Amino acid sequence: MDTLKVGIVGAGGIAAQHGIAWNTNAPRGEIVAVADISEPRAHAFADRFTGGKAKTYDGIESLLEDPAVGAVDICLPHHLHTPAILAAAKAGKAILCEKPLCTSLEDAATLDAALKASGARFVMAHNQLFQPSLVEARRLLAAGALGRPYFYRSVEAFQNRGALAATPSTLPPGESPWAWRNDPARMGGGEVLDTGWHATYRMLALANDRPVEVQAMTERFFLPDVAAEDTGVLLVRFASGAIGELVSSWAFAAVGNRHFEVMGEHGSLAGGGAELLHQLHAWPDPVARPFAPVHSFTAEVTHFLDVVQNDAPSLAPFETGARVLQLTLAAYRSVAEKRTMILPENPLEAGHPAA
Ligand SMILES: NC(=O)c1ccc[n+]([C@@H]2O[C@H](COP(=O)([O-])OP(=O)(O)OC[C@H]3O[C@@H](n4cnc5c(N)ncnc54)[C@H](O)[C@@H]3O)[C@@H](O)[C@H]2O)c1
C-alpha cells in the first residue's frame, strides 16, 4: 500500500497531537509538509515530528502546490477552515479537518457543493468517537442492550485555566490561541462551538438519530475575559422522542470525568475515558468494564487512512459536521431569543423558532 503523504496546515497547539498521531501510523502515513503563517512554528513542528525533513510553507496555497502532498490535515483557527477546505478540495486532496466544520451554514453549503464537485475525501477530526467506552456503548445500544433509549447525557467539561494565561510557553513566538478565540469574527461562537462540539457529536453518535428540537442556556462563570460563553447546557429532542442533555464547560469538570450516560427501557450505561458502567434495572450495582487508554488522535488518523486507502465508510462525514453546526447555531439562537428551535431535516438549513 502506498504511504499517504500529508501536509499539516496550522502548527499550533492541537497540531502536536496530530503530529504524534501521524507518526504512530507510519508507514501508512507520513508528514511531508507543514504550513503555518508563523515560520518559527512551522520549523519547530517539522523539527519535532519529522527531524526537519518536512518542507515548510507559509500558507495552504503554497503547500498545495507541493506535488508530494496527497492529503491535508487542517488544524487552523475556526474562520480559516472554509477557505482551507475549499482550496484543498479544488486541488483534489483528501482532507482531515479539525472541528468545527466551519462557522456558518452558508459556508457549510458552499463546502458541500465544492466537496461534491471535487470528489475529495473529507473526514471531520472527531477524535472522541474513538474512545473505547463510547465504541462499546454504541455496540451495546445497536445490539438493543437497553431496549428503547429514553435519555442521553453528553458532557465535555474541564476548568480551562490555560485560557487565563498568556501564550502557552510550549509555543514558539506567535499569536496566542486565545487571541483568535476571543475574537467573535474568527471564533464563530463560544465554548459550545469549540469544546462543546465534542459533546454534540458524541450525543449524535450515541443516539444515531436526528435531533429535531433544541433549547439552550449559556453562561460565563469562570473566564470573565472570553468574548462569549464559557459554559452551555442544551436540551435536545430526537425524532424518536428521546431527550438529550448536553453539558459543556470551560468553568468546571464532571466527577470522574464521565463523558456520557444513556438511560433506557431495560437499564442504563455510563462511560468516561477509562471505563463503561452498565446496569440493568433489577441489578443492585453497575458492572464496570475498564479500558486501556487510547490516544484518540492516533485512532482518528488510522480511521482517516482507512477511508482514504481502503474506501472505509467515514464515521465522521461532512453531514455530521453540518448537523453539529446546525444544532449549535440553533442553540445560540435559542439562548438569544429564549425560545425552542425546530431543526429542519436538511442539516444545511438553519433552525427556526417553534410556531
Ligand atoms: N480535537 C481537539 O480536542 C481540539 C483541541 C484543541 C483545538 N482543536 C481545534 O484545532 C484547531 C486549532 O486550534 P489550536 O488550539 O491548535 O489553535 P492554535 O492557535 O494553537 O493553532 C493555530 C495555528 O494556525 C496558525 N495560523 C493562523 N493563521 C494561519 C494561516 N492563515 N495560514 C497558516 N497557519 C495559520 C497559527 O500561527 C497557529 O500556529 C481549531 O479548529 C480548534 O477548534 C481541537
UniProtKB/TrEMBL annotation:
Where does the Gfo/Idh/MocA-like oxidoreductase N-terminal domain lie? 4-125
Q: What name does this protein carry?
A: Myo-inositol 2-dehydrogenase 1
> What does the record give as EC number?
1.1.1.18
Task: Give the top-level enzyme category.
Answer: oxidoreductase
Origin organism is: uncultured Thermomicrobiales bacterium
Instruction: State the InterPro entries in the record.
Output: Gfo/Idh/MocA-like_OxRdtase_N, Gfo/Idh/MocA_oxidrdct_glycsds, GFO_IDH_MocA-like_dom, NAD(P)-bd_dom_sf
Keyword Chloroplast included in the entry's annotation: no
Q: Supply the source organism's classification.
A: Bacteria, Pseudomonadati, Thermomicrobiota, Thermomicrobia, Thermomicrobiales
Tell whether Membrane is among the UniProt keywords: no
